[in-house]
Amino acid sequence: MVCVRPNIPVYNNSEMTGRYYEEFEINVKTGESNLTQIYLKEGLDFISQQAVAQRPFFLYWVPDATHSPVYASERFLGKSQRGRYGDAVMELDGSIGQILAHLVSLGIHNNTLVFFTSDNGAAVMSGPHQSGSNGPFLCGKETTFEGGMREPAIAWWPGRIPAGTVSYQLASVMDLFSTSLSVAGVLPPDDRVIDGLDLSPVLFNNSLLDRPIFYYRGNQMMAVRIGQYKVHYWTWSNSWEEFNTGINFCPGQEVPGVTTHTQEEHTMQPLIFHLGQDPGERYPISVQSEEYRDVHRQVTAVVEQHQKDLIPGMPQLNMCDLAVMNWSPPGCEQLGKCLKPPESNPWKCVWPH
C-alpha cells in the first residue's frame, strides 16, 4: 500500500513518539481518546521538574482536542450539554484547572504568569458535532470577520494581576512574545522589527495602549481595527465552489454584501462597523454620516503608515511539496516508523480560502 500523505506525528520536544490512531489511539466512532490526559501529565511533570530544580520555565501547553477529530477521554465523554465538542472543552477546562492547582501546590503561583487564549475562532464550517460557537461574532475560522479572529484571553498571576479585572485592550498573540520577554527581564532582539507589543502595562496597571490591529488573508490586508471601529477593505467568506458543496463558513449568519463568496474590494468606500454597538458586523455605518467620514479619515492615515513601514516577507505557504511533509521525523528510527518520502515536486498552492 502506497501512502499518499503521512499520518499526523506526535512529538515529545523534537522527537517523534508515535502517530495519531496508531501509538495514540483515537476512536473516530465514539470520540474517545486519552491524548489530552497524556498532554496534561507531561505538562504537570515538566512543571514539577523545573520547580524542584528551581529553574525558570516556559510551558507552551497546546492541546488539540477541539480540532477534527474532536475527542475526549472516557471520564468526559457525554458529560457536557454540547456534544462531543463540549466534552472536549470540558476536559480542557478541567486540565487547565489542574495546572493552576499544581502551581499553587508547588508554591510558585505568585511567581508565574499564566495566559490563556486561542489561535483562532471556532471552525463553524465543521458542523454541529465537530465545531464550537463564536456567539454573536460573525462567521468563524479562516475568515477575517470577528468570529474567525477574536479569541478569549485570560491572564492569571496572583498578587500581580488583580482578580476580576476587565480590559478592553486590543491585543494579538504576537504580543505574547514581547510580553514574555519583558516579564522575564530579557531585552528583545534589536536586529529585526518586532510586531508584538509589551502588554505588561495592561496586565499590571490596567493601562490602555493605542494601537491598530490589521487583519490579513495571505498577503492581502482585509480589514483594520482601531478602538471599537473595524474597517473592511475586502470581504470574502469562502468560494462559491466550496459553498455549493455544502461547506459554509457562516452558517445561519450570512450578511448580504458582507459575507461574500467572491473576493469583493471596498478600497474606495470601505465597510465600517462599530463593534461595540454591532459585534456581529451586520450593520455598516452609513457612508453619508459624519461618523463614517471621521473614522475613514483616521484609519486611512494609519493604513498608509502601515503600508509604508511594512517589510514584505516571502510567503511560506504559497508553494506546496508533498516531500516536505512528516514522512520521517526525528525519532522515527527507534520506532521503526520512518516512511519513504516522494520525490520533491513543488507546485503553487491553490488555497480555497
TrEMBL record:
One MF annotation (Gene Ontology) recorded for this entry: arylsulfatase activity
Classification via Pfam families: Sulfatase, Sulfatase_C
Highest rank taxon of the organism: Eukaryota
Segments passing through the bilayer: none
InterPro entries: Alkaline_phosphatase_core_sf (IPR017850), Sulfatase (IPR050738), Sulfatase_N (IPR000917)
The Sulfatase N-terminal domain, residue ranges: 23-186
Cofactor(s) it depends on: Ca(2+)
Family the entry assigns: Belongs to the sulfatase family.
Protein name in UniProt: Sulfatase N-terminal domain-containing protein
